[in-house]
Amino acid sequence: MTDPTKTPHIAVLGSANMDLVAYVAKAPERGETVTGREFRTVPGGKGANQAVAAARAGATVSMIGAVGTDAFGTQLRTSLEQSGVDTDLLRTVETPTGTAHIVVDDDGGNAIVVIPGANGTVTALAPGDEGLIASADTLLLQLEVPVEGVLAAAQAARRHGVRTVLTPAPARPLPPELLAATDLLLPNEHEAAALTGIADDPRAAAGALLSQVPEVVITLGSRGSLYAARGAEPVTVPARQVTAVDTTGAGDTFAGTLAVALAEGNSVVDALSWASSAAALSVQRPGASASMPYRTEIDGAADGVS
Ligand code: ATP
Ligand code: RIB
Questions:
Q1: Does residue 113 lie in a domain region?
Q2: Which residue is closest in CA terms to ligand 1's atom 27?
Q3: How many domains does the chain have?
Q4: pLDDT beyond 50 at 305
Q5: Residue 4: what pLDDT?
Q6: Which residues contact residue 184 at a Cβ distance below 8 angstroms, ignoring those fewer than 6 apart?
Q7: Which residue segment(s) compose the domain that 61 sits in?
Q8: Interval 67-75 mean pLDDT
Q9: Whose CA is nearest to atom 9 of ligand 2?
């Protein structure tokens, strides 16, 4: 990776959840009870995860969102600050902090129920939000806060010429105005299939999405990622061959680090490769934000592979 001449400024509007994680050999079927091995509370939420990933990768990062007045809210704010994320515009509201109830099995895969709580109050920009977005190089967005809030942020970014990267997760239909204000769409393969109706063919799905946004990256889990842009041949970058213990937050690690690498002016292939190294490090450790690597680790893991 090139050394940045200027530290990128990344703004994130999105969710902060406390992840309540049960580690089990095999997730229970409906009606079944299983005994798990371990329980952890880990700071998570797609917005906070992407903020932590970008900050640990070396960017200046500011987070817009909401937590409750409860202990989880305090812990999430502290955890973001410990990773270097500015939380001045993270609101504290009279609604319980969001939680994610996660089962991780022995293959490292997961099943998740999210209770949005305070995240559900992020329906519009608050004073200061647009100024912050205007000062950023890139705005990272996901769909764990109401789409009205996401749209308001994306349109503010567009007014100020700030690059927008939207992770369309959890999958839901996207308003055309939001796609019109999106520069880079970053779905996983399931979200890409949900958006296009095209399953098991990421190139075709990416091609369909390019009619709505100028650039697309589809992440493919252990099979890597695919980049497509209008008028160019798609590029595929493999994932690192590692043993996953917990893939929660892999996509968020990828998104946060990719945004940093692109904002630093690296080529798309180098940026994808660096993000793959970061995500591969994260899947080898438990927890969402807790598993995210720092820049020196990513550079060490990426040495000789990009
Ligand atoms: P999650 O929802 O679990 O955070 P996601 O579904 O959004 O993740 P994935 O496509 O599963 O995103 O993974 C994102 C990136 O992380 C992949 O493109 C790949 O680089 C890396 N990755 C994911 N799983 C693995 C794995 N088992 N081994 C190596 N790299 C992985
Ligand atoms: O993308 C991973 C995140 O999704 C977890 O941290 C959890 O909070 C869920 O929202």
A1: no
A2: 222
A3: 1
A4: no
A5: 60
A6: 163, 164, 165, 166, 213, 214, 215, 216, 217
A7: 9-15+46-67+82-90+123-302
A8: 98
A9: 45
